[in-house]
Amino acid sequence: MVYLLLTILCTILIIFFFHLLQTRRQIKQLSFQLQRYNREETSMKVNLSTANKSLEDLAIIINETIDKKTESEVISNQMQKELKRAVASMSHDLRTPLTSIIGYLQLINDKNISEEQREEYLHIVLKRTSRLHTLIDNFFSLSTVDSEEYLLQPKKTLLNTLLQEILLSYYDEFTTAGKEPTIHIVEENLFVLIDETAFKRIVENVLLNAIQHSNGNITIELKKEDHCVLFEVTNTIKPDDTPDIKHIFDRFYTTDRARNHGNGLGLSIVQRLMNKTNGQVKAEINKDEFNIVCTWHLYQQV
Fold first, then answer.
1. Which tens digits make up the pLDDT trace of 177-196?
2. Which CATH entry fits the domain spanning 155-297: 3.30.565.10, 3.30.420.310, 1.10.150.20, 3.30.70.260?
3. What are the phi and psi torsion angles at 174 (to 5°)?
4. I need a labelling partner for 86 at 20 to 30 A (CA). Which of 12, 143, 190, 235 fits?
5. Would you list the domain boundaries of the chain?
C-alpha cells in the first residue's frame, strides 16, 4: 500500500514537474516575442499554443494591448500629418494677404502716385485686411470648437426670424458678388433648441461658401419635414470647381488650389458645430448643383 502511494505521488510530482517545465518554456517564448515586439523587430502579435488557460488569457490580453497601441500609433501619425498640413496651410493662407498688404502699403507710401491710385491701393489693402481678419477668425473658431472647454448655451429659438436677420445682414455680400438669392422660408414658426451664436456661424459659413463658389443661382430654404427643421442652400457650380464630397468637410480642403476664395475651414467648422448642436449636415452634388442640408429636431415642449 505504501509503495502504491509512493508511486502515485512520484507520478504526480513528475507530471507537475513536466507541466512546470512546459509552462516555463511557454513563458520564455511569450517573453521572447514581447521583447522582439518592443525592440520593433516585428509587428506581429504574440502567438502561443497552450492548454494553460491562464497563459492563454494572458496572451489574449497582451494582443489586445498591442492592438490598442497600434491603433493609438496610427491615430498619432494621422494627427501629426494633419498638424503639419495645417501649419503649412495656415502659413500659406496668412502669408499671401500679408505679402499683398505690405506691397500695396509700400505703393501707397510712394509720393509719385496720384491720389486716385492711392485711393485704389488703399481700397485693396482694406479688402486684403478683411480677408486676413476672416482667416484668423476661422483659425480661432476651429481651435475653440474642437476644445472641450467650448460650451454652448442652447435655448428655444425661432429659426424663421433669426435666419431672416442673418440674410438681411448679408445683403452687401450678395450685392458685391452680383448674386441675388432665391429665398424660401416657411411661414410656420419653427422652434429649435440651439445656441444662437452657433446657428449664426453655421448659416454664415454655408452662405459664404455658396457666394464664393456659386456660378450663378443660389437658393436658400428653411422648411419642415416630419419632426425636423431643414436649412438648405443650393448653388450652381462651375465644371472645374466641382468639390470632392468625401473631403468637403475636411479641414483646409478647397477646390481652389491657389486658395484665393477660401481656406477650407468654413464647412469644417459647420460640421463640428452641427455635431455640437445635435444636428446633422450632409452635402450632395446633382449635375451642376452643390447642395448643403443642415437638419435639427423640432423643439418639443416637455
1. 888 999 999 999 999 999 99
2. 3.30.565.10
3. -65, -40
4. 235
5. 88-146, 155-297
